[in-house]
Amino acid sequence: MNRESSQNGVEWADVETSSEEYARRFSGEVGKYFLDLQTQITLELLTPWPGARILDIGGGHGQLALPLVQAGYQVAVAGSRPACQMRLSRLLPDGSYDFKVGDLLSLPMENKSFDVVLSFRLLPHLESWPGLIAECCRLAAEAVIVDYPDIRSINLFSRMLFRAKKAVEKNTRPFTCFSRAELLTEFSTHHFGHPLFRPEFFIPMALHRALNSGPGSRRMESVCRQLGLTGLLGSPVILRVTPESS
Fold it and tell me: Residue ranges of the Methyltransferase type domain (predicted)?
């Protein structure tokens, strides 16, 4: 956990993920593949709620806000600082989304203000990650969708491999890995369950970046998916949970 990502108990890890430098990690053919798959899975998980009111907590990176607006969803993005809107203002037309500034773990919004709450690129970088889960569940009436690095993958060796990963990705950050049981236990304390897990990649993203071949990455991951490796040991994972009463 970088000390720069929190201050006086307020988390603002989204400042880095909202930056242009961070966006460059998803440039080129390989980056496009990463974002295409993330968008595809997310839209599939949102199928039961067409046109829903969606809050994207820490979504200043714009990875989801843009395709969600294009798909007809009513999108609001919450950022910890006004600067987190800079990329969004370049990517999206004025009036096509709402932007809220506040403490991401205690937003000034009423309970169940949104149909669905998303949070991507944030959970593993927060010191108070249970607080993010609590806030997502408080604000969501129908579903919460998050992404996270799963310990049941090559991330099991993440501490040993971090230096090699940083040599490839340069601006990578330390992150927390989670087990499925750990997250489900936390969500269950807020009465959310019925999980759907959608692992994204079997091959580590850092290796895909090192190989730098979009078509090659697509082919390799297609084979891994067909062999069942991605479902078993893939990461990051996109997780959707819904209220236990639903």
Answer: 55-140
